[in-house]
Write a structure and sequence with these properties.
The radius of gyration is 17 Å and the shape is globular. Strands 3-2-1-4-5-6-7 form a seven-stranded parallel beta sheet, with helices on both faces. Helix 1 runs parallel beside helix 2, helix 1 packs across helix 7 and helix 4 runs parallel beside helix 5. It is 46% helix and 16% strand. The chain has one domain: Rossmann fold (3-Layer(aba) Sandwich). The chain is α/β, with parallel strands linked by helices. The chain is built from seven helices and seven strands; from the N terminus they run βαβαβαβαβαβααβ.
Length: 244
């Protein structure tokens, strides 16, 4: 798929990886729908940066725990741009809690944001994609969906579900829409990690380095522009961490 002129919805696009992905796709000529929940100022800054470079973008708000807000946001994107060609499910939460501390709220917020939201975003966006005859959905997963992290049970379960969801959606939306997942490893550690924790992450990979936003962007571009043949696949992008 040539991204020029294609309307792309990126969730969590105001900061971190979502921001990097959105800016890169805009550089390729895509029209960006920038989703945010609490990061309005950052989302507006991303829009301003894209527009300053001659591109088109607009911010859209939604609490991804609420299906009604997801549906409303999708309708707003369609009203603004007339179509949705690409969906990048980037928004995610990542909270450490011991098994004994996990509450029902912890479970729900992880599964709602990291799994339920990508499903309903895909459901609503894919209707427009299939109407136009083509589309791409890319889910940002985690190698914890295959090899769970200790003290991240709901998160790990949500990412395992996302891999399964990718396969199920690929079958449900074929042949018009290709759906793939990128299982990330140590890329952009949480902001509260100290130098010792970051070194531990780096040394646990086979490549002995952390992934960069550029690594993720290149994988997204490959699945968007590099091939229309891959669907239902999970691309491991974790520096060999799962083998170590």
């Amino acid at each position: 798929m040539d991204l020029k002129g294609k309307v792309t919805l990126v969730t969590g696009a105001g900061r971190r990886l979502g921001r990097a992905i959105a800016l890169s796709l805009a550089d390729r000529g895509a029209i960006l729908a920038i989703h945010y929940r609490n990061s309005r100022a950052q989302a507006e800054a991303v829009v301003a940066q894209i527009e300053h470079a001659g591109g088109r973008a607009k911010p859209f708000h939604a609490n991804l725990e609420q299906v009604g807000e997801i549906e409303q946001m999708t309708a707003e994107v369609l009203a603004a741009f007339g179509r949705i060609d690409v969906l990048i499910n980037s928004a995610s939460i990542f909270v450490r809690k011991s098994f004994e501390e996990i509450t029902e709220r912890d479970w729900d917020v992880n599964l709602d944001t990291n799994l339920k939201a990508p499903f309903f975003l895909s459901k609503f966006a894919s209707t427009a994609m299939r109407r136009s005859g083509a589309g791409k959905i890319i889910n940002l997963g985690d190698w914890a969906g295959i090899r769970p992290y200790k003290n991240y049970v709901p998160y790990s379960v949500s990412k395992a579900g996302l891999i399964g969801l990718t396969r199920a959606l690929a079958k449900a939306l074929a042949p018009e829409v290709q759906v793939n997942c990128i299982a990330l490893g140590p890329v952009m550690p949480p902001d509260d990690y100290d130098a010792t924790q970051i070194d531990r992450l780096r040394n646990a990979t086979l490549t002995k380095r952390l992934g960069s936003p550029e690594d993720v962007v290149r994988a997204v571009l490959f699945l968007c522009e590099g091939t229309d043949y891959a669907t239902g696949s999970t691309l491991m992008l974790e520096g060999g961490r799962i083998l170590n």
